[in-house]
Design a protein that fits this description.
By secondary structure, the protein is of the alpha+beta class. It has a domain of 38 residues. Helices cover 32% and strands 17% of the residues. It is built from 2 helices and 3 strands, in the order ααβββ. The protein has a 3-stranded antiparallel sheet with strand order 2-1-3, with no helix packed on it. The longest helix is centred in the first third of the chain and has 17 residues. The N and C termini lie far apart (62 Å). The model has no long low-confidence stretch (mean pLDDT 84). It binds zinc ion (ZN).
């Protein structure tokens, strides 16, 4: 019954995998998210522009002059 004893490892591996994916999702080069039409909108997370409803685009460190 070695198999059953190792069974707990699968949910643990799943949690680790999910944690890794959600961490790698956040680009460390992204400074903030902004609306292409409204540069005054600066959000720390992706979403929609509160003015026009467009999807916010990430502004990356190396894109700033
Ligand atoms: Zn906008």
């Amino acid at each position: 019954m070695k198999f059953l004893r190792l069974f707990w490892i699968f949910p643990v591996l799943l949690l680790v995998a999910v944690g890794t994916v959600s961490c790698s999702k956040k680009d460390p080069n992204v400074l903030y998210y902004t609306c292409p039409m409204h540069p005054q909108i600066q959000k720390s997370e992706p979403g929609q522009c509160p003015i026009c409803g467009m999807s916010l685009v990430p502004v990356k460190r190396d894109e700033i002059p």
